[in-house]
Structures are given as structure tokens and as C-alpha cells.
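Example 3.2
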Amino acid sequence: MESVYHLGLSREMIKEAKFAFLPGDPQRVPKIAKTFDKNAIKLAYKREFRTWLGKLKGKMVLATSTGIGGPSTSIAVEELAQLGVHTFIRVGTTGAIQKNIKVGDVIITTGSLRFDGASTHYAPIEYPAVASYEVVSALIHGAKTTGVDYHLGITASCGTFYPGQERYDSFSGYVIRKFQGSLKEWQKLNVLNYEMESSTIFVVCSTLGLRGGCISGVVVNRTEQEKVKKEVVVLAEKNATQIAIEAMRYLIQNRTLSH
């Protein structure tokens, strides 16, 4: 029973699961798994990678944490793909940068700005970071089913939390010239939000012939403030999780993938 190196999982352990939720935070893994299956079980926990397994609509489904950022996310997708997983939904949190987006809303990313580094190891920068149409459609269905307000569009996906997202509340308080004024520019170009994993997931999935999508709960709107409130995080995570589960249920029921 050979295991993949970082995740500590084998094909036997995941019981032929083909679908996976990808939260960043390991603490969110059991919450997601128990939401779609109260009898979900834990499989492994190595480094930032924590995995639980449950059943949804008669199919085995994984919840695996990626940690923060592109490098660890690419490992999670790569090794799950080696085990036979073909459909991935990132379930994350995000900071919105458009005034009309409220905290607690969700953002369904259709495509991402590639300000990560990991995706460039899979395809040149000219290669677009776009979500699977099928997964986006399923996420829209999930949002409509749950009644949560959602926004559809482009995300700035960054390799850093502070300078890449033009945050000045860092140790040095300095942002290099490349990113100075970038937040305002992305607002003008109708970019909806910042996060740190979607571009990697989209490029890795597209280049490998897999399906990838991303839904993020809004924990702060940076046009109003930078401070994140705990109660808002709870609401945003709940909304994103519920929609992601409905989307995965829809994908399983409609079996549109030709694998």
C-alpha cells in the first residue's frame, strides 16, 4: 500500500475517491467533512496536509487542507491527482476590494491574476488561470440553492499576503514599487478580491486535464477596513462550505466528466 510522500495517503486509504474539497486551514477539514457526512473519518495529518474522508451522494469525497499559498497547494493537487482525484473545489476566505461586496457574501472565481510563483512551474505566464466551466456552473447552482449572495468574476491570486496584496500593516510598512498602487488598479479593472491559492489550482488542474474551482467567503471588505472580525469569519466559512457541498453534490449527480 504505497503512499504519496507529502499527504501520507494511498489509493486504498481514499477508497477510490475522485472528488476533493481543498480548504487552506487544517482545522476546517473535519468541519467540512462532518457537514456533508456525519460519519466522516480522518485519514492522515502530515505537515499542513490534513485529510478526512466521507460519502456524498453515494460517492467517496475527500477534504484535504493545502496550507497557505501556491507551493503547498500544488503539492496537494498533484498528489491527490496521482491517487485518482479529478475534481477539486477550493473552499477559502478572502478580502474583497469592490465596494458592493459585503462581508459574509461569497466570491466564485472564474479566473485569476497569476501573482503566485508555483503555477509558472506548470505553464508559462501567458497560459491563463481559469476555473473549470463545469465547476463554476455547479458553484453558481450551489449559491442559488442556498440563497447566499454571490459574486462572479476575477481574483488577484498572490504569493504573499502583505506586499503582494499591497498591505502596509507589515513589519517594514514598505511595499515594493511593483505593487504600489496595484490595489487601486485592480479595482479599476473590476477585479473582485485577493486570495492566495486559486491561480495555482486553476493552472495545475488545466494543464493536467483536471477540474478545478474556487469559492471564497468574504471576511473583510478592504474599501472599508482591514481588520477581520471573528464572527464574520465563522459566517463566511459557513456560507462558502454550504455552497461548495451543494456544488459537489451537483457535480456527482450530473457526472459530466469523461474520466
